[in-house]
Design goal:
Helix content: 25-40%
Shape: globular
Order of helices and strands: EHHHHEHHH
Radius of gyration: 16 Å
Distance between the termini: 33 Å
Strand content: 5-15%
Number of strands: 2
Largest sheet: 2 strands, antiparallel
Number of helices: 7
Structural class: alpha+beta
Number of domains: 2
Strand order of the largest sheet: 1-2
Length: 137
């Protein structure tokens, strides 16, 4: 069994759509799967995709809940969902590691097109330190 987390900041999709009541279902279940769509989901935070992002890190989920796109107020709290995943996963869902999926789809280093990053060079600063570098994402 693995423990996975999902952060939900104020007003964010998973803040307004209670996964405890409905489960985690992607916003766009009919969208096609693919490495390009997976990279856009992870890198740009696209929610209109067939994916739901989860993490093994409580700290990462907590940070998304506090510093994500949703705004917190005295009346709007942040949440961190914790779920235990293992054994048989629903036939309608699967669990994948995006790093592994992208790496397996990457062309050889000598291929004519071999670089997958399409953001500005400071993007990783926003991912690594969203509290102070959020403008970079």
């Amino acid at each position: 069994m693995a423990i996975l987390y999902k952060g939900a900041g104020g007003g964010a999709y998973w803040h307004t759509n209670d996964a405890c009541a409905t489960g985690f279902a992607p916003m766009k279940t009919s969208a096609p799967f693919g490495v390009d769509r997976l990279m856009r989901h992870v890198a740009k935070g696209y929610f209109n995709s067939p994916y739901v992002s989860l993490t093994h890190s409580f700290g990462v989920a907590f940070s998304y809940a506090l510093f994500g796109k949703g705004r917190l107020t005295n009346k709007v709290a942040a949440y961190v969902y914790e779920m235990e995943v293992g054994g048989r996963v629903s036939t309608r869902a699967s669990v994948a590691n995006p790093v592994k999926e992208v790496a397996e789809a990457a062309p050889a280093p000598t291929a004519a097109i071999n670089y997958q990053h399409d953001g500005d060079p400071d993007f990783i600063l926003g991912v690594a330190n969203p509290n102070t570098m959020w403008r970079r994402v």
